[in-house]
Specification:
Largest sheet: none
Number of strands: 0
Number of helices: 14
Strand content: under 5%
Length: 318
């Protein structure tokens, strides 16, 4: 326990250094103008990092698989569908696009509703195993992706470019007006998550063991899926989809912090995510001079890491 505490302190110090570097390094022009805008970006990155890390760790607990992430449920695809439908039927100058709160609410509502309908239906019907649930989610995600591609071909080219800006994660142009709502959602999720932290530790033992220890397993799985969906929907609506980010930070936390306690794993994954986002954005802006985007780098590294984990699992199984 003491060793993990030292590791968490080290991660916290690194995270603070990254935040200070991003906030104060090479401020050009007026400090009163630049610094608050940098802090808005940092706050958005911290909220996004914690939301993705938290949702991925709890999601992998109920699936008992460290390769699967909430993105494989089709949530990212659902976000793309909502934005594409808005642009296709209403246009880029509609109130659903210009009003950030309305767009934010529509995206979160649709993504959570999608998760509720899919999972509630499946869990009520014959207690389908979680892997079947995931398989159906992946199939639906593929179908939604095909629908998005079809509609985007029909959209006016100018509006298509505007739509693409929403479908790629960006930290340089954060929706600052939505930060307060996102922070509120995150706090509510944390309060609920803190109350079930002990049950998460028990659920990591497996379905039978958890039920023998008095946990209503199926009900808890449903609640955690909803919680994970809300967090992913919030982070996606705030900055855009980041496919492999949760996979990276969750698995690094498992390897760095050898423990079963979710309070430690979630905190470790959140700190790693903050370091990756804030430190990565600092490198993109000041080292690479915005020649690339952080989401491209994350997806590139995450894709390689995903292949590595698949090969590792196959070797272990063999």
């Amino acid at each position: 326990m003491r060793k993990n505490s030292t590791k968490l302190i080290f991660l916290a110090v690194l995270a603070i250094i990254c935040i200070l570097l991003y906030g104060f390094y090479d401020i050009k022009g007026g400090f009163d103008y630049a610094f608050p805008r940098r802090m808005i970006r940092v706050t958005a990155m911290v909220v996004t990092a914690i939301a993705i890390a938290y949702s991925t760790v709890v999601f992998q607990t109920i699936t008992h698989n460290r390769i699967l992430t909430p993105s494989m449920m089709g949530l990212d695809s659902m976000y793309e569908v909502v934005q594409t439908l808005i642009y296709f039927f209403a246009g880029s100058m509609s109130v659903w696009v210009l009003n950030k709160y309305l767009n934010f609410g529509a995206a979160i509502f649709a993504m959570v509703l999608f998760a509720l309908i899919l999972y509630r239906f499946l869990f009520r019907a014959d207690k389908h195993p979680i892997y079947l649930l995931l398989l159906i989610g992946m199939i639906i995600g593929t179908l939604l992706g095909s629908l998005v591609t079809f509609l985007q071909v029909l959209i006016d080219p100018v509006e298509y470019l505007s739509l693409q800006n929403r479908l790629f994660a960006t930290f340089s142009n954060v929706k600052a007006d939505l930060l307060y709502i996102s922070i509120g959602i995150l706090l509510i999720a944390f309060i609920y998550g803190y109350r079930i932290m002990g049950k998460l530790d028990v659920m990591s033992l497996g379905r039978e063991n958890a039920m023998n220890l008095g946990v209503n397993y199926d009900r808890m799985v449903m609640k955690i899926l909803i919680l994970s969906s809300v967090l992913i929907a919030t982070s996606t609506a705030l900055v855009g989809p980041i496919t492999f980010f949760g996979l990276i930070v969750a698995n690094l936390s498992y390897q760095y912090l050898v423990t079963y306690k979710h309070s430690i794993l979630i905190l470790g994954a959140s700190l790693i995510a903050i370091i990756a986002l804030v430190g990565g954005q600092f490198l993109v802006e000041h080292i690479f001079e915005l020649r690339t985007t952080l989401s491209v780098i994350i997806n590139f590294i995450g894709g390689i890491y995903f292949i590595y984990l698949l090969l590792k699992e196959s070797r272990a199984a063999g």
